Each structure stands twice: as C-alpha cells, then as structure tokens.
Amino acid sequence: MNLLLSTLLGLSILFTCIHAEVHYHEFVIEATPVKRLCKTHMRITVNGMYPGPTLEARNGDTMIIKAINHSPYNATLHWHGIRQTRTAWADGPEFVTQCPIRPGQSYTYRFTIEGQEGTLWWHAHSSWLRATVHGALIIYPKLGTSYPFPKPQRELPVLLGEWWKRDPISVLRQAQRTGAPPNISDAFTINGQPGDFFKCSSQETTVFPVSPGETAMLRVINAAMNNELFLSVAGHTMTVVAADAAYTKPFTTPFILLGPGQTTDVLISAPVHYPIGSRFYIAAHAYSAAPGIPFDNTTTTAIMEYSHPTAASPFDTNANVDASSIGAVAPAADVNIKASTTATTATTSPPIPSISATIATTNRQIPSTIATTSVANPPVPLTVAPTATTNPSIPASTAPASSPLTENKYDNNNVDPASNIQSNKCAVPSNGNNNNNNGNGGNHNVLPPPLLPPLPAFNDTGAAAFFSAGIKSPGPVELPGPVTERLFFTVGLGLYFCPPSIRCGGPNNTIFAASMNNVSFVLPQTFSLLQAHHFKIPGVFTADFPPYPPIQFDYTGNNISRSLQSPVKATKLYQLKFGSVVEIVLQGTNIFAGEEHPMHLHGHEFYVLATGTGNFDPRWDVSKFNLVDPPLRNTIGVPARGWAVIRFEANNPGVWLMHCHIDAHLGVGLAMAFITENGFGELETIEPPPADLPVC
Q1: C-alpha separations of 259 from 183, 433, 499, 649 in Å
Q2: Is the distance from CB of 696 to CB of 673 less than 8 angstroms?
Q3: pTM of the entire structure?
Q4: Phi, psi of 424 (to 5 degrees)
C-alpha cells in the first residue's frame, strides 16, 4: 500500500514538472513618443508599448524576465501579487529588495508561480515610472484543470490607468520641491486610451469585440497612480468570480470598485440577445471619500461591440493593429521558450536575443463548449452622457453619500436596457472628431451611439461598502492560527511645519507627509534593505517599528491636535519569526484628511477578517470578524475614517514592504517593512542573491 501511494505521488510530481514551462522575456525600458489628448509626449515604456506587454503563464510555470534600462531614470520592476516564495530578490521595490537598475544596466528577474492563478499585474516600482510602465500578468490554471465556474468564451484584460499632460516624473518632482500634494491627473484611461469624452481621443477609443450569446470575462486591473475607481458596463450584469488572483464566491453587481493595485475578474453576460452592431460603454470614474481633497473627476470609456464570432486561442489574439497607435494590450512574446518538459527549477537562462514589440488587440479568447451563464437583474443604463471634460476640484459633498446598505439598491431592473440601444439620448458628446476609426478597425461614429452605464457618485461610501461586503472566499477556509503577533498600525496623512523663511505648498504653509504608527518611512540609499538584512550590514535600518501607535488618540475624530500631525522620519522594520501568524488592525486616521488607503503587502496574501468605520474597538468589533469565508487579498482598502483587520502567516523569508498603493502617499512615507526570518532547512530559507543583482 505504501509503495502504491509513493508511486502515485511520484507520478503526480512528474506530471506537474512535465507540464510546467519556463518563459523567457526581454523587457526594454525606454522613452517612447506617445500621443494622448492632442499632443505627443515622451513617456517611459516597456518595449515601446503603453500599456506594456501582457505576460501569460500557467500555475507552476517559471518566469525569467531580463530588464534592460535604456531610460534616463533608475528603474525596477515589481510583479504585483506574486508571492515570490524564497525569491525576494525578484520582488522589485527600489531600495527594499534591490538597488535600482541604473540607466544602461540590466537585471534578470527569476521566479516561479506557485499555487496562484488569476489576474495579477506587473509595474515599475521606482519613482513614478509605473504611470506608464505596467502591464497585465495572467496566470491560467494548470493543464488538465479549469476554472471553478463555466469557462468564458472570451477573456479581455482591462487596464485602468491615469494620464498627465505633463511628464509624471516632473509632477512628482514639483511636489517634492514645494511640499504640496502632486497635481491631479488630466484623464483616466482604459488600456491606455482616455475614450470618447476627450478631445483627439475617440479615434483610438479601446473597442472590445464580443459575439452575441457568449459570456466574456473582464480581467480588470486598477493601474492608476492615485485613485480608486468605480467601473460599470452598460446593458450588462457583472458577476465577480475572482479578486487579486483568488477565486471568490460568485457575486452579482452592477458596478465594481478597485483601489490602485487591485484586480477583479468579472463575467459579463447580456440579459437579452443583442444583435450584431450593438455597442455599450465600459466606463470608469473616481471614488473619493475625503471632503475637500482635489481629484480627477473625469470619466474614461471603452466600447464593447457585438460582432461576428472569431476564431479562439488561449494564448493568441485575433488580429494585430498598427503599432503606431501604442494603445492596445498585447501579449509579451516568449523568447526562446523551452519545451514543455523543462523543469521549473532552472536558475540560469540562455542568452536572450533582442525582440521587437508586437501589439495586438485587447480581446483574448479561450475556446469552450460549456454553456454560457446568464445573470438576472441587469442595471438600468443611464441615458445621459456626462458633460465634464475637465477636472477641476470637486468637493465630495457635491453628491450625497449613501446610507449603509441592507439590500442591493444599485441593482435596478425597472427598464429593459435593450430598448434604449439606439436612443438619441445616449449620443456621444461632440469632441471635434468626425473620423472615429478606433485603431481596431471600427468606425464607431457611424454606428449606433453606445449606451453609458450608471456609476455611483464620486463619494458614495455606501456603494463602496456594498461592493466590499460582497467579496468572499468560495467556501469555508482554514484560517492560519493561533495568532502569535497582534499588531495595531495607524495609517494616514500628516503635515510638517515649513522651515523659516521658506514658502511651502501644503495647507497653511506646511509640507505634505504620511506615516504608519507615526513613522514616516524613509528608503535607504547605499544598500537595499534585503541586502542589509541578508549580509548583516549595520546602519541601514533599525528593527524597532512600533507594534502599536506611540500615542493613542481619537484616530478618526475632528480637530486632532497639531502636536500629532508631524511624524518621525525613520527606516524602521518589524521582525517576524518564520511561521508567525500575524493579525493586524489597520486603523485609518483623520489627520489632515481621512482618505481611503489601499494597503498592499508584498510577498504574502492575507485574509480580510473585517472592515468598519470609526475607531476599531476590540470589545465590539471582534464579533464582526468573518472567520468562515473571508476573502484572500494582497491589497485591501482601509475605509476613510475606518479600519480593516487582516491575518496572514509569515512563511516566506525576506524583507517585505507594506505600503499604501496611492503613490502620492507612498512617496511621502506611508509604508513600513517586515523582516521574515529564515526557518529550518532549504525550503524555509531565502535563495542566495543572483550574480547580476544591481549595486547602489
């Protein structure tokens, strides 16, 4: 019997190794001319593409990506959401796990995808380069397995971004020079394009072709720099099936909400059989719950267009578009991919020849004979298009906040959306463009005008709470425990007093700041934190990050004492033993402004036990914990003037950054880092640093 079990186990491992692949890619980071909002700008891209190439792999595959920096800036790349088990050297945050790749230098990232599938993404993790240096990272199930839901006939990466007319690096440098918050963006984008409501933009508006009767899956990624975003699709219902590359209990909703860094997979189905030529807007705009804080109030759009069925391929796109548009999402071409029998333990790569970028359309297809699923209660299409084409500061109080939800008041099915397909009320506002070829071969000005979907108000906290409450694991989970580290971290903004005789750009002549537990995180410059830890280099950091706020106060109250506004600048880390079970209360504060903070943890995923408003009180709030089916995330939005509780096991040795994924906050110190010590044996020990690790 034991022999039989051993044989079966060996065959299982052999089967896994045989079907795992090693993917080689070359990413050239370079300045590229990109035209948006009527002007051509030089922007930093990967392989001349904005957004960058889509990486595709299967659970168990190994990725080897050589990054060559031909830009004038220091650069690093981060593989957002990848656990990086024992490969912290490949995680990417500048001065945390590596020194930056200097102009003219290169570094090869090597990591294996273990036990993960779904939608993740990659992006620059140096300065503000990620504004244009980012792309999708799609992990398919292993061969012989499939999704835990009927396979969609089509899969569409949808990258939400943010565009400035000025160079994003200059926007950041101006903020650093003046002490003011960075200027808000000029547009949001879907797959790099602002959409029909912007001048000089409708010709390249992103078009997603779908076929009547099929179910499509949108792999939505919020790659925006500084804004959470609501997104909706006119005339269709959305069923959430995954978030942050973790499957969820199917959840039907007329809109989704994503903080920067988060991903959400949704199945799109039509309540009726739409004919060929039917067209619907996918639209997104900001969620901003902090009164008086300026934000980009524009709306970005793409178009979902019903067309004739096309051939399907799981790792191919249907057609190519002109590379000069720099607007579509394209798969990254494998360079010299090994045969499927290649083992996943390879640690070196053969010489990588240079490759040229290939740009393909945004629609991806997976063949399937499984019947499509349909979802009831479609949202009512809004028949009035927004008129805002600029982005002045709009106080959040201009739209009423919703009350706490006891039912899905957003799921309104009083109107048949099919009845308004060609309504003149839905006409696209004129933007001075008469020729509307979209770059994918369509001409959507001579076709019926698309419907525009309803979106929650900019400050609709009720909508945000409704969506957050709907995300749960597919079934009961085995939570790590017992808890050995109970931590309480405040997260919020702050202010420094301006030095005498200098004029500063923050409120009342101050300097914008941010902190966790009153520590404003400062990155080192001589060694990365991981190098300093691994090689025991003194003087780079201290391991005394406070487990609790040094001073307790009414965190979400009004009129907080000015003595609490100025954090301490330091490079403090918190040390964890391998195998520790960590539970953290993330408490938002109302110092300066009570904003929502999307907190991202590198090297781990965590369970979200609960979120709430006000100050966390263990006497009452522990009873709200979901200990049955909490969602598994890598990024969680801490509600404005509220809290979130997360739990994870520290079972990955290395130095791991935890930070707000709003880059305007990260840049002024809203971060900290954990040291997870090595455990016992090779499998619990970090790998040696690679030979080409950049030096500072």
Answers
A1: 19, 32, 34, 24
A2: no
A3: 0.82
A4: -65, -20
Q: Which of 45, 18, 250, 42 is nearest to 144 (CA)?
A: 18
* Residues facing 65 on adjacent strands: 25, 109
The token pair at 530 is 């991981």
In this structure, the number of other CB atoms found within 10 A of the CB of residue 355 comes to 18
Query: What DSSP letter does each residue of 43-71 carry, written as one string?
Result: EEEETTBSS-PBEEEETT-EEEEEEEE-S
> How many other C-beta atoms can be found within 10 angstroms of the C-beta atom of residue 441?
13
Tell me the two tokens of residue 503: 């004029």
Q: Do 320 and 461 touch, CB atoms closer than 8 A?
A: no
Q: Helix, strand, coil: what percent of the chain each, to 5?
A: 10, 35, 55
C-alpha 673/C-alpha 656 separation (Å) is 5
| Token pair listed for 204 | 């390249």
Q: What pLDDT is attached to residue 342?
A: 31
| DSSP E strand boundaries for 464-524 | 485-497, 510-516, 519-521
Q: What is the mean pLDDT of the chain?
A: 82
Cβ atoms of 615 and 463 within 8 Å: the answer is no
Do residues 164 and 186 make contact, with C-beta atoms less than 8 angstroms apart?
A: yes
DSSP per residue over 627-670, as a string?
A: -SSPPEESEEEEPTTEEEEEEEEE-S-EEEEEEES-HHHHTTT-
Question: For residue 609, what are its two tokens?
Answer: 């036990």
DSSP string, 259-310: -TT-EEEEEEE-SS-PPTT-EEEEEEEEE--STT-------EEEEEEE----
The number of CA neighbours under 13 Å toward the Cβ of 354 is 5
Please give the Cα distance from 178 to 189 (Å, whole number): 28
Among candidate residues 337, 419, 438, the one with its CA nearest the CA of residue 381: 419
- CA 182, CA 662: separation in Å to the nearest integer? 11
∠ Cα 199 262 405 (to 5°)? 95
Q: Which residue, among 462, 460, 454, has the nearest Cα to 289 in the 3D structure?
A: 460
Name the strand (E) or helix (H) holding 201. none
What residue type is assigned to position 178 of the chain? T
Q: Write the pLDDT tens digit of every residue in 34-76.
A: 999 999 999 999 999 999 999 999 999 999 999 999 999 999 9
Start-to-end Cα distance in the chain: 56
| 204-222 per-position pLDDT tens digit | 999 999 999 899 999 999 9
Environment class of 613 (CB within 10 Å of its CB; exposed 0-12, middle 13-18, buried 19+): middle
Do residues 450 and 426 make contact, with C-beta atoms less than 8 angstroms apart? yes
With cut-offs at 50, 70 and 90, classify the pLDDT of residue 508.
confident
Which of 522, 494, 641, 647 minimizes the C-alpha distance to 581?
647
Judged against a pLDDT cut of 60, whether residue 26 lies above it is answered with yes
Instruction: Report which residue type is found at 374.
Output: S
